[in-house]
Amino acid sequence: MESENDQNVEYFKRPHLIWYVLIIPSMTYLGILAYMPDVIPFDYLGPLGILSKYLYLNHRIVPIVILWMALATHLFEAIYVVKTANSLNINVKCRSRWFVQTLMLGYPSTRLMNKYYASHHKKN
User: Looking at the chain, which terminus has fewer C-beta neighbours within 10 angstroms, N or C?
Assistant: First the structure.
């Protein structure tokens, strides 16, 4: 979706599907490990279960800290992407999509916006 107007650029691009498959379930698992670890079947998850059980039993704060740091990072990246999109005159509908996508995925979405920003400034 790309069309150039002076005030209303329509640009939105999705990262590869693999990023959705990896990041969203991982963040969900981390949230469950941090706040509802009793529902996780550690013994059926192989090495991930061993690590998760170790963290749950010995270092309960670690998954919580990692989760909140990741969420904060995704939020700051989403704000950055929206500000970058605004500077490129990308319309509100697309900026909203960028915000939600970056909030969910983080860096893969930010990278796409940075590539677009770099290509836009090379032309000018």
Answer: C
Longest dimension (CA), the chain: 58
3-class SS at 11?
strand
Q: Tell me the pairing of strands 10-11 and 2-3.
A: antiparallel
Regarding pTM above 0.85, the answer is yes
User: 70: number of CA atoms within 13 Å, CB side?
Assistant: 18
pLDDT tens digits, residue range 9-46? Answer: 999 999 999 999 999 999 999 999 999 999 999 999 99
- Cβ within 8 Å of residue 118, ≥6 positions away: none
> DSSP per residue over 32-49, as a string?
HHHH-GGG--GGGSHHHH
Instruction: Kindly state the average pLDDT of the residues 113-123.
Output: 88
pLDDT value at residue 41? 97
